[in-house]
Amino acid sequence: MIILIGNQKGGCGKSTLTLLLANYLTQAKKIKVHVIDMDYQQSIAQKYEKAKVLENEAAYEVIPAGLEHFPVIKELLRDTQNEVVLIDLPGKLDDDGLIPVFNAADLVICPFAYDEFSFTSTILFSVVLKKINERVGIVYVPNRMKANVRYETQLEVNDQLLKIGSLMVPIPDRIDFQRVNTFMTPLTVVPLIIPVFEPVYEKIQEIIKAYGQDHVTGG
Ligand SMILES: Nc1ncnc2c1ncn2[C@@H]1O[C@H](COP(=O)(O)OP(=O)(O)OP(=O)(O)O)[C@@H](O)[C@H]1O
Ligand SMILES: [Mg+2]
After folding, report:
1. Per the structure, how many domains does the chain have?
2. Is residue 112 part of a domain?
3. From 8, 9, 15, mutation site for ligand 1 pocket: most ligand atoms within 8 A of C-beta
4. Are 206 and 166 in contact (CB under 8 A)?
5. What confidence tens digit (pLDDT) does each residue in 44-78 have?
6. Is residue 12 part of a domain?
C-alpha cells in the first residue's frame, strides 16, 4: 500500500514525519517499509547514505526518485499490499507527474502549522488531491506547536480540516525532532508520536484488511 506524506507548504515536517513513521512501522510494528524520497533536496536519501556508512544494516531502503519515475516504481511494487511504501512528496502542485502518484495513494499524511500561509497551502493541496483521488483519506498532523504561542485560528482551522479528513493531536516544536534519522528515533520523542502514529497504524491495518477481502472476492 502507498502512503504519501505531502503538503505544498515547505518546511512543515514532511521529511521528518516520513522518517518517524518509517522507523515506527518497522521497529514498533514489524511492518516492511520502503521509503521513496521525491523531495527536491532528497534530504532523507542523503541522511540514509550518511547513516549507512556508520551503522550496520538499515531497517528499510530509501529510494531517491523523481515524480517521472513513479509509474515504473509502482509496477515494481505490485503485490506488496502487506508492505508500506512511504513517499515523501516535493512541496509543489504544478506538475502533472503528481497525478499518477495521487491516484495510487491509499492514505495521505499532511503535516501543517497553525498559521495563515500554512493553512492556505494545506487547503490547496487537499483540494487538488481530492480532485484526483476523491476517496483517499487524509490525516492532518499539526506540527511544530510552540508551547508559549497562542494560535488564534486553531479552532477555525480544525473545523475546516475535519470536513476533509481526520486530525491528529499536535506534535510540539522540540529540538530533539531534528535528530531523527533513518536508523533511529530519539527515545525522548516517542511518547509524543505514539498518539499520532497509533491511529495511522489502525488505518493501515484497515486498508491491508480491505485489500485481503478484495482478493478473496476477486474485486
Ligand atoms: N516537531 C518539530 N520540532 C522541531 N523541529 C522540527 C519538528 N519537525 C520538523 N522540524 C525541523 O524543521 C525543519 C523542516 O522539517 P522537514 O525537513 O521535515 O520539513 P519538509 O516539509 O520536509 O521541508 P521541505 O519542504 O524543505 O522538504 C527541519 O530542520 C526539521 O528538523
Ligand atoms: Mg522535505
Report:
1. 1
2. yes
3. 15
4. no
5. 998 888 888 877 677 899 999 999 999 999 998 87
6. yes
Give the pairing type, strands 33-37 and 137-142.
Answer: unpaired
In a domain, 218, yes or no: no
Residues with CB under 6 Å of ligand 1 are 10-16, 39, 43, 91, 143-144, 171, 173-174, 177-178
111 contacts: CB under 8 Å, gap ≥ 6? 5, 7, 12, 13, 14, 16, 17, 140, 141, 142, 143
Mutation pick for ligand 1 pocket among 9, 12, 16, 190 (CB with most ligand atoms within 8 Å): 16
Do the domain assignments include residue 152? yes
Residue-range definition of the domain harbouring residue 199? 2-213
Instruction: Give the CATH number for residue 74.
Output: 3.40.50.300
Residue found by looking up cell 490547496 in the block:
124
pLDDT, residue 214, reads 72
Residue with cell 512541496: 91
